Amino acid sequence: MFAERGFHGASVEDICERAGFTRGAFYSNFGSKDELVLALFQATTDRLLEQIEALLPELASQPGTLLDAVLGLLDETAPDQRQWHLISAEFTLHALRDPEAAEALNKQRAMFRESLTRLVEQITETSGLELTVPAEQFVRMVIAVHEGARSQSLLEPDDVPAGTLEHTFLPMVLEAVSRPSR
Amino acid sequence: MFAERGFHGASVEDICERAGFTRGAFYSNFGSKDELVLALFQATTDRLLEQIEALLPELASQPGTLLDAVLGLLDETAPDQRQWHLISAEFTLHALRDPEAAEALNKQRAMFRESLTRLVEQITETSGLELTVPAEQFVRMVIAVHEGARSQSLLEPDDVPAGTLEHTFLPMVLEAVSRPSR
């Protein structure tokens, strides 16, 4: 419903009708539409983090391969990327106009970023590398590239197949900000 | 009005009232709100391209410096970045749901990208460098990083001052994809 009608366009009634729940059931679980979107974010990022963690044992010693594998995970969810982008970009716009939503979104994005940062630190350590920038900065850059590139891929799917920019440039960035640790 | 109320929330009446024009004056210049937003895009990108071109003679021989200068230009327009991001991100979402808007937006983004690509080719040639990826890919990456980073900067201005991610990572990307030309 959010992807179809927009965050503001989708009413709690629409959502309940589509899900086959009553308004009472909605409000006994979520205080507002904001909370529902944030719960969707949480579920999506939790799933992604779990998938990345599952790759670790196999790939920890090959950071280049791991980056490819992580980018592959993002690609695999591509059938959902359009819906996900619509929801996520729209809620971000909502947050830019609503300080309370911004606080909740930032808190959640920070938790996701911290988990990813810990994974990056773990991987670089296992593979005998150290980063020349704070791991969190690298994670922020990966997120920026991914979100910016996704917008281009969705607007021009033929010219920018999902993942193209990430696969081309992020390994170079990783190479540029890492060196063998002493 | 677009930044305040959203693309869908701002009516032609709202826009005319704020601008002090009649509906007649609006429709004699623009066929729709879409056309007005696209005209705003055109004006903004034209101004940016002009500013970059004005830097060229001085900086053409120092591509690193030029990149910094271009990023500086983006930062300088920072007071408008919030408004601009709201309009631009919202129209992109509109385009993802409306094929006609997508076609018009893609056409305009393509023109902007082509101008930037020509500038990049001109600069690398003058400075005796060649790119190891197509210049247009590099331009797409710069745009992706800028748009993705701007979203983070607007959500978390204290943690990600405008331009931080671009200034940290884009010079590394340029370094990684360029080499002295033979």
UniProtKB/TrEMBL annotation, chains A, B:
<feature type="domain" description="HTH tetR-type">
    <location>
        <begin position="1"/>
        <end position="48"/>
    </location>
</feature>
<dbReference type="Pfam" id="PF13977">
    <property type="entry name" value="TetR_C_6"/>
</dbReference>
<dbReference type="Pfam" id="PF00440">
    <property type="entry name" value="TetR_N"/>
</dbReference>
<keyword id="KW-0805">Transcription regulation</keyword>
<keyword id="KW-0804">Transcription</keyword>
<dbReference type="InterPro" id="IPR009057">
    <property type="entry name" value="Homeodomain-like_sf"/>
</dbReference>
<keyword id="KW-0678">Repressor</keyword>
<dbReference type="InterPro" id="IPR001647">
    <property type="entry name" value="HTH_TetR"/>
</dbReference>
<dbReference type="InterPro" id="IPR050109">
    <property type="entry name" value="HTH-type_TetR-like_transc_reg"/>
</dbReference>
<keyword id="KW-0238">DNA-binding</keyword>
<dbReference type="InterPro" id="IPR036271">
    <property type="entry name" value="Tet_transcr_reg_TetR-rel_C_sf"/>
</dbReference>
<protein>
    <submittedName>
        <fullName>TetR/AcrR family transcriptional regulator</fullName>
    </submittedName>
</protein>
<feature type="DNA-binding region" description="H-T-H motif">
    <location>
        <begin position="11"/>
        <end position="30"/>
    </location>
</feature>
<dbReference type="InterPro" id="IPR039538">
    <property type="entry name" value="BetI_C"/>
</dbReference>
